[in-house]
């Protein structure tokens, strides 16, 4: 009577027990038997989706829910992810797909809301979350990416200072601008920008103030140029305008004032005097 029945199987334990959960047994069993998966991976460069391990190795989601979440995250925005469209795409059927969607919604990988369109229809809006807990991430605009150091243009080096005219009359500055604009016709390397020309115009005007003709200034700026390419033609012109500035012309006094011609009241001869009267010969 007390003999134990050895051919009777012991009562089975729940597979949901923490010790028997497949996701908890697989690592230990593989290590114990010396097997386990090895990876032969190639780096993807196009058409790939980044899936977090928190989804791929989720301890509570079913395999159907994990696969469905990976599929949804790989779709472009606007793709249909309703139960009917997914059932037409996969063989699991509407019941299993609906259950998987509810799992994903419970764990924060999906947000589904019902909204009414302008024409009165009710539609379901689905938001896929690759990181659960980031509520409202799709509504908030992303902050602009700060420019990397290599994206910033190099700072523009300042041009050397140029002489300044004593009287920058508009006509003088316009003539100086014409001199600079004509330099490229003699040497195409002397093509300069409008900003550089604005910096150089006063220097050319200072030369023109020294009794030089526009042709003479043109010749001074285009003669004996170096044969190699000119990387900064405006800097070369600014240096020449300063280093080769001619001296001021000698001061020339104003000519003596000449009196107008007058007719002598006595002899009717012409003579110069400030007012009419008698010439010097008649007065003597």
What would you say this structure looks like, in words?
36% of the residues lie in helices and 7% in strands. The chain has helices spanning 22-33, 53-56, 63-74, 83-89, 94-106, 170-181, 183-186, 194-208, 214-222, 233-243, 280-283; strands spanning 110-116, 122-128, 261-263, 270-272. It has a two-stranded antiparallel ribbon. Strand 3 (261-263) and strand 4 (270-272) form a beta hairpin. The chain is elongated. It starts with 21 loop residues before the first helix and ends with a helix.
Provide a compact summary of the structure.
By secondary structure, the protein is mainly alpha-helical. The chain has eleven helices and four strands, in the order αααααββαααααββα. It starts with 21 loop residues before the first helix and ends with a helix.
Question: Secondary-structure blueprint of this entry?
Answer:
Blueprint: H1 22-33, H2 53-56, H3 63-74, H4 83-89, H5 94-106, E1 110-116, E2 122-128, H6 170-181, H7 183-186, H8 194-208, H9 214-222, H10 233-243, E3 261-263, E4 270-272, H11 280-283
Antiparallel strand pairs: 1-2, 3-4
Helix pairs in contact: 3-5, 4-5, 6-8, 6-9, 8-10
Keywords for this entry:
single chain, 284 residues, mainly alpha, two-stranded antiparallel ribbon, two-stranded antiparallel sheet, elongated
User: What portion of the residues fall into strands of 2 or more residues?
Assistant: 5-15%
Q: How far apart are the first and last residues' alpha carbons, in Å? A: 182 Å
Counted beta strands: 4
Q: Tell me, briefly, the overall form.
A: elongated
């Amino acid at each position: 009577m007390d003999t134990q029945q050895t051919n009777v199987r012991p009562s089975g334990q729940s597979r949901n027990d923490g010790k028997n959960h497949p996701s908890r047994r697989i690592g230990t069993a593989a290590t114990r038997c010396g097997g386990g998966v090895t990876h032969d991976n190639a780096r993807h460069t196009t058409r790939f989706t980044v899936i977090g391990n928190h989804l791929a190795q989720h301890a509570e989601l079913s395999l159907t829910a994990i696969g469905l979440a990976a599929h949804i995250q790989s779709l472009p925005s606007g793709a249909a992810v309703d139960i009917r469209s997914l059932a037409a795409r996969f063989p699991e059927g509407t019941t299993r797909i609906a259950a998987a969607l509810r799992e994903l919604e419970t764990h924060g990988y999906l947000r589904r809301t019902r909204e009414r369109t302008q024409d009165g229809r009710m539609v379901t809006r689905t938001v896929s979350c690759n990181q659960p807990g980031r509520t409202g991430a799709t509504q908030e605009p992303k902050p602009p990416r700060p420019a990397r150091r290599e994206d910033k243009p190099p700072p523009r080096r300042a041009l050397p200072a140029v002489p300044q005219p004593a009287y920058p009359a508009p006509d003088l500055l316009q003539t100086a601008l014409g001199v600079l604009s004509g330099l490229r016709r003699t040497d195409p390397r002397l093509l300069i920008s409008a900003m550089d020309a604005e910096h150089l115009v006063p220097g050319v005007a200072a030369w023109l103030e020294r009794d030089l003709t526009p042709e003479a200034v043109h010749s001074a700026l285009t003669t004996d140029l170096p044969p190699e390419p000119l990387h900064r033609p405006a800097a070369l012109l600014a240096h020449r305008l300063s280093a080769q500035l001619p001296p001021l012309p000698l001061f020339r006094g104003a000519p003596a004032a000449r009196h107008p011609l007058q007719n002598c009241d006595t002899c009717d001869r012409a003579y110069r005097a400030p007012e009419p009267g008698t010439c010097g010969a008649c007065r003597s």
